[in-house]
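SDR family oxidoreductase
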Amino acid sequence: MEKVLVAGATGKTGRKVVQLLKTSQYFRPVAMVRKESQKAQFEKEQIDTVLGDLKEDVAHTVQDIDKVVFAAGSGGKEVVAVDQEGAKKLIDASKKEGIKKFVMLSSMGAGAPQKATELQEYLEAKHKADEHLRESELRYAIVRPGPLTNEKSTGKIKLGQRLGQDGSISREDVAQTLVRALHDDTANDKTFEILEGDTLIGKAMDKISS
């Protein structure tokens, strides 16, 4: 079983990733938390935790880890410090530690932030973090969902390099896509956008993996 560090484990999407990993036969989650007080919610479910702040040194968080999911975000408050530089820091630490795969939760629009009419600073930060990952020589998958909802999972998505259309997607379906991307034979060194659609997540991911 591979150990997967989840950065942003206390967030809405990160929490769903942790729960999916907990029930997986392939992966075991390690929740990265910023405060000692956040450990209890995971430890009562027998989920391992590690203390780490993306604004500080994070080298210790990837020790004895196989793969990483970056689902952290500052909620628009510290996009450069967390969403950009924090991600870059974790990417660098992962490279040094020989992490097998790094799955990045990015955002639709991060491919061309200059075209955005809103959230430009956020998309610019995500763009820079994504580019850093692409240049890192780590095996990666960069997942760029449209606007996130708290609706129930449909288990179906629309997937493409540039979807260029309106839509949204549930956090549950995003979490399922991130976990699917962790597999060794899935979406290696691929960047793609996702929205709610009519193709099963597994099938959509298989298409870009071949």
